[in-house]
Amino acid sequence: MFTRFAELDTLLTGFTRAVRDILGDTFVGAYVQGSFALGAGDVHSDCDFIVATTELPQGEAESQLRRLHDEIPTRPGFWTQHVEGSYADTASLRGIDGLGVPWLFCDHGHRQLIWDTHCNSLHTRWILRNHGITLAGPPIADLVDEVPPDALREAMRAELPEVLRSIGPWASFDLAWTQRYTVTTYCRVLYSLATGKVASKRGALEWAYRNLEPTWRPLLTQVMDDRGRGWDPDDPPRPGSLDATYAFAVYAESFAD
């Protein structure tokens, strides 16, 4: 068992077999990271993966991977629509020096692979190194170095002023989902800034509830309680919650100093 969902485990098993066949000798291992690795995955989570390779996919291997990811969402079932991850070469996956290298990336709910740095982050490396679930291959700690806490803190300090601006171009603030995602993202960044570690969405919200000023507890409680509403394009933010979120953003960004 990799997760608590039998359907997802079956998908991951077949997916790992397929990419191993496609990549051949360049396949090193396949791993789950993200919320499922942190023990917090639920039906509102995507399942994040990293496939480690000796070299970045190219040529026929890249073409076959593109066909695979175009086909997976057409299969029946729930989890075929909710996988996300990247194909990372072991050299750039190893440590900080590999940051900035684009990896072949499957975005949540998308069928077309792109070259992107989405998963090439200290955040991903920390989760992999400390909590990654091995689907196939050597222990992930053999492939990923420890992430220095101060390096993670510095990355979060740089990210704080960009959180709100980075969300706007791809997620509408007219949606309740975006309001909740924004608050949660700030909490995760603040948690990493404070601890030099990475928490799940729920874990970061609970930490914020305990450690930030009590005035923010109603907002944090609303975000936690409303997670079950999921993503709904017709679901607007609760009255007043967006203004509270913008105020929380100002408060959170003050920690960058």
Overview of this protein structure:
Helix content is 46%, strand content 12%. The chain has 257 residues and is an alpha+beta fold. The protein folds into two domains: 6-145, Beta Polymerase, domain 2, CATH 3.30.460; 150-256. β2, α3 (59-71) and β3 (83-89) form a beta-alpha-beta unit. α8 (176-195) packs across α9 (201-211). It is globular, with a radius of gyration of 18 Å.
In short:
The protein has 257 residues and is α+β, with helices and mostly antiparallel strands. The protein has helices at residues 6-23, 34-37, 59-71, 90-93, 122-131, 149-159, 163-167, 176-195, 201-211, 217-225, 241-253; strands at 27-33, 47-53, 83-89, 103-106, 114-116, 133-136. Helix content is 46%, strand content 12%.
Helix/strand-derived class?
alpha+beta
- Portion of residues in helices? 40-55%
Summed up, the helix count is 11
Uncertain runs: none
Whole-number total of structural domains: 2
Could you name the CATH class of the largest domain?
Answer: Alpha Beta
Order of helices and strands: HEHEHEHEEHEHHHHHH
Termini gap: 44 Å
What is the makeup of the main sheet?
A: 6 strands, mixed
* Shape type: globular
CATH overall fold name of the largest domain: Beta Polymerase, domain 2
Q: Classify the beta-strand content into a percent band.
A: 5-15%
The overall pLDDT average reads 97
CATH architecture annotation of the largest domain: 2-Layer Sandwich
Instruction: Give the strand line-up of the largest sheet.
Output: 5-4-3-2-1-6
Structure summary, number of beta strands:
6
Spatial extent as radius of gyration: 18 Å
Organism: Streptomyces wuyuanensis
Keywords: Transferase
Domain Adenylyltransferase AadA C-terminal: 143-224
GO molecular function, one term: transferase activity
